[in-house]
Amino acid sequence: xxxxxxxxxxLQRILTARVYDVAIESPLEEATQLSARLGNxxxxxxxxxxxxxxxxxxxxxxxxxxxxxxxxxxxxxCASAGNHAQGVALSARRLGCQATxxxxxxxxxxxxxxxxxxxxxxxxxxxSFSDAYGHALELERTTGATFVHPFDDPDVIAGQGTIxxxxxxxxxxxxxxxxxxxxxxxxxxxxxxxxxxxxxxxxVIGVQTADSxxxxxxxxxxxxxxxxxxxLFSDGTAVKTVGEETFRLARELVDDFEVVDTDAVCAGIKxxxxxxxxxxxxxxxxxxxxxxxxxxxxxxxxxxxxxxTCGANMNFDRLRFVAERAEVGEEREALxxxxxxxxxxxxxxxxxxxxxxxxxxxxxxISDEKIAHVFVGLSSRTRGESAEIAQRFVQHGxxxxxxxxxxxxxxxxxxxxxxxxxxxxxxxxxRFSFPERPGALMRFLSRMHPDWNISLFHYRNQGxxxxxxxxxxxxxxxxxxxxxxxxxxxxxxxVEESLNPVYRLFLR
Length: 508
Known about the structure:
It is built from 20 helices and 18 strands. Helix 5 (83-95) runs parallel beside helix 6 (109-117), helix 9 packs parallel to helix 11 and helix 12 packs across helix 13 (282-298). The strands form four sheets. It has a six-stranded mixed beta sheet, with helices on both faces. Strands 5-4-3-6 form a four-stranded parallel beta sheet, sandwiched between helices. A four-stranded antiparallel beta sheet has the order 12-13-11-14. By secondary structure, the protein is an alpha/beta fold. The protein has four domains: 6-55 and 154-325, 3-Layer(aba) Sandwich (Rossmann fold), CATH 3.40.50; 57-147, Rossmann fold (3-Layer(aba) Sandwich); 331-405, 3-Layer(aba) Sandwich (Biosynthetic Threonine Deaminase, domain 3); 423-506, Biosynthetic Threonine Deaminase, domain 3 (3-Layer(aba) Sandwich), CATH 3.40.1020.10.
C-alpha cells in the first residue's frame, strides 16, 4: 500500500472494479413520507433490488473475475448462510466455474434452495458459521479451490465501494451523512474509502445492532474484539469478529456509529414498506432505523441523509414478528403492568383513565382476593409517551410498571398472563436462544439433572434460524453450582429472568 492513506489507497481499486457484468446500478430513491415525518431528506440506495436481493454480489464478482483461468478451473469456495453465498453462486455461473458453498446445517431451506438454483454446490457442515468457515478452509486446502471471503479481502471491499461511487454520481448536491449497516465490515470499508477520498465532508456513520456490535467494540478497544455471542435477528450482520482489513479502514475512516435495537429495525422495515411497498431484511433496514434515531437524538432539520438498503432476503415467516414489534419500535404502542384493586368499580375507573386511546392488548386473570395484575397495551402518539401514561396511572392510585422496553414482556409474558402457580416452588426463570434444528430440545433435556423439573416452557416460532425460549426450572437452592455447570455445558446463549419484575407480577 502507498503512504497516501487508506481512502486514496482504495480509490483506484473502486474506480476500476468490475461489478456490472452481474450487478445493476441500483436506484437512489427519496423516501418521501419518511422525509416529511423527520423534517430531513432521506434517500434510499436500493441494493435490495440487485439480482440476488443484496449488495454482496458486487464484491464476490469483483474478486472472482480477477482470478486466473487456472484458478477458475479449480473452482471457488466460500462459507455463508445467506447473501454472500448467493453472490458467489451467481458470479460463478456468470464466469463458468464451479462454486462450493459451505453452510451450517441450521441454514433455512429457502436459502439452500436459492444457492442451488443459481448452480452452487451446497455442503452442509456444523451448527454455526464458524463451523462452516473452518470446513470451507479445509476444503480449500484439499481441493485447491480459491476461497472467496465475505468481507476481509481488498477486491471484495472495492466491489462494495462501487455503491458509494454510484451514490455520489446520482445525488450531486449536499449530503450530510451516509448510514451503513456493519457485519464483518466489507460494505462500510468500501463505502467509506470512496467517500473520504472524493467527498470527505460527508459523514460516514456505521450502524450496528446492540447485540452484534463487534466493530464498535473493536474501534473503542483499538483492536479487534471477538464477541462470545451475537444476536441473530439481523442475521446479515451477525458477525462475532470483524475483518482485519475492514477494521483498519473503519477505524481510520468512519465518523461515528449508531447502535439500534430489534424494535427500531422492525419499525425501519415498516417505514421502507410504507414508502416503497418493498420488504427489507433486518440488515437492510438498519440504516433507516439509525437515521430516525440520529434525528431524534440531535434534533437536526433540513439535512440530507442516505441509507443503504443492503438486502431483502427476508423469511416470510418472520413478518409476523416484524409487524408486532414495529409498533413498539415506533413507540406507537406502550405496554404496562397495572395493579388494580379487586373491588367493584375499579375496572371502570381504570378504563376511564385510558380515555380515547386505542387498547391494543388487555390480559387479566383473577389470582388474588384483594388485587389484580393487568397486562395492558395502548396506542401512543409520540416517543417517550409511555412514561407519561404510567405516571398518570400512578397518580390516580394504580401501581404501574412501564414494560414498553422490557424484552421479557414483549417476547413472552404478553402471551402467558395468568400463569402463576402455587406449585412452582424453587423456580428459576431463563430465556435461551435455541437453534431451530431437530435435537436442540433433546440436548437440553438430556443434560438436565433428572431430579429437576421444568415448571414453565414457552416457545413461539418467529421464522428465524434461532428461537427465543422461556424456561422455568425448579432447582433446589443447594444445587446452584450444579445448575451453573448445566447452563455452561449447553453453550446456548441465555439470560436469567428470575428477578424480572414482570415475572414476579404475572408468573411467580
